[in-house]
Amino acid sequence: MKRGSGSKIISIGVILCLVGSILAGCSGRMREDEIKTIRIGVTVYDQYDTFISQLIEDFKSFAGEKESQTGIAINIEIYNAAGSQSTQNGQVEAMLDDDCNVICVNLVDRTEPTTIIDMAEKRNVPVIFFNRELVEEDLERWEQLYYVGAKAFESGIMEGEIAAEAFKDLPGADKNGDGVFQYVVLEGEAGHQDAIVRTEYSVSTIIENGVEVEKLSYGIANWNRAQAQTKMTQMLGEYGSQIELVLANNDDMALGAIDALKAAELEREKWPVVVGIDGTDVGLEAVKNGDMAGTVYNDKEGQAAAILNLAYELSIGGSLTGLGLEDGKYIRLPYSKIGPDDVDDYMKK
Ligand code: GAL
Does residue 129 line the site of ligand 1, with CB under 6 A? Predict the structure, then answer.
């Protein structure tokens, strides 16, 4: 008797499911209809990094929009790893214990993703790495690993193009009139994919555009404005107004260089050309007021939307087609150049 009624319940359940999926049209939508809440865990390498903090703000506002479009509550947990890989590993463990459906990781050390990958694989929770790119072999270690970032080499090429145009077009860019662009570089973290590629491609592009260059010096300033100011102050002490160009791997370091120029009370006409990358709010402001000759837009909105959409589909078991995945694993957003003529368009974003 008991067994009989039990099997009836099961068969009614199966029939209801079948009717349900016919009405829903596809099982994906059926699942989406049933899901009320998803939980996304995020950990960033340093919450005080200007570009990353703006990207996270965009991510949160896209999540809010998605919630109202879908009616599914999106709970987000955001952690700051504060520059420690072991802290970040612990945060991922906590997010897995909290039953996050997907984990988004801005690695502290892009060569050390192993602990995170192993933990996530064990719990079968997908991981979206972003901005700090792990090597391909690591991303290949499990099928549920993804990377969202930008086409790093493009940013270097565009920065070089802006600098070469400035040399040709801006009166006084070649301060000593020797036909050579004397430059210094402010580099991001040693070993970061963007720092390596930007430094290399910006310089080679200036040369390819027919401008002769001479490197005076460089300083590693870890994407950081205050560190860049210190390095630039030292370089100014050594080379003074011989410096005709500052190639900064990001806007915050370009602004640090400008802080140093202002603190040194160098006359405005004697300033070198300063170029950055990112198009952060403060970077755009500096292009607008003429402190920076230009910057390169690192599409934080595009990257934030790509992370959110991928995280959402992975969480509901939805479709990944149409998300722009290359090789089923990578989403890379393009960069664009920003000069005084189009800076207003970017300020409205
Ligand atoms: C770069 C960005 C830098 C910094 C870095 C952190 O893409 O240009 O400003 O945010 O990522 O990994």
Answer: no
Ligand 1 in reach of 52 Cβ (< 6 A) = yes
The share of the chain scoring above pLDDT 90, in percent, equals 89
* Strands, sheet with 330-333, edge to edge from the N-terminal-most edge strand: 73-80, 37-44, 102-105, 127-130, 145-150, 330-333
Task: State yes or no: pLDDT of 3 exceeds 60.
Answer: no
Sign for the pseudo-dihedral over CA of 159, 150, 228, 342: positive
Q: What pTM does this model have?
A: 0.91
Q: What ligand 1 atom has the least distance to the C-alpha of 277?
A: 8
CB-based contacts of 57, cutoff 8 Å, min separation 6: none
Whole-number Å distance, alpha carbon 131 to ligand 1 midpoint, is 7
- Residues β-bridged to residue 69: none
What are the structure tokens assigned to 169, written together?
């077009």
List strands edge to edge, sheet with 180-187. 212-220, 180-187, 245-248, 273-275
Angstrom CA distances, 312 to 31, 75, 315, stand at 13, 11, 5
Instruction: Say yes or no: CB of residue 298 within 6 Å of ligand 1.
Output: yes
Is 49 a pocket residue for ligand 1 (Cβ < 6 Å)? yes
Query: What local confidence, expressed as pLDDT, does residue 160 receive?
Result: 98
Number of neighbours of residue 52 by Cβ within 10 angstroms: 20
Nearest Cα residue to atom 11 of ligand 1: 131
Give distance in angstroms: CA of 171 to centre of ligand 1.
Answer: 31
- Which residue is associated with the tokens 């189009």? 342
What is the spatial distance between Cα 288 and Cα 274, in angstroms, rounded to a whole number?
Answer: 13
Give the model's confidence band at 34: pLDDT under 50 very low, under 70 low, under 90 confident, else very high. confident
Q: Does 46 sit in the ligand 1 pocket, CB within 6 Å?
A: no
Asked if 241 contacts 179 with a C-beta cutoff of 8 angstroms, the reply is: no
The whole-number pLDDT of residue 349 equals 82
Average pLDDT, the chain: 92
Q: Is the pLDDT of residue 51 over 70?
A: yes
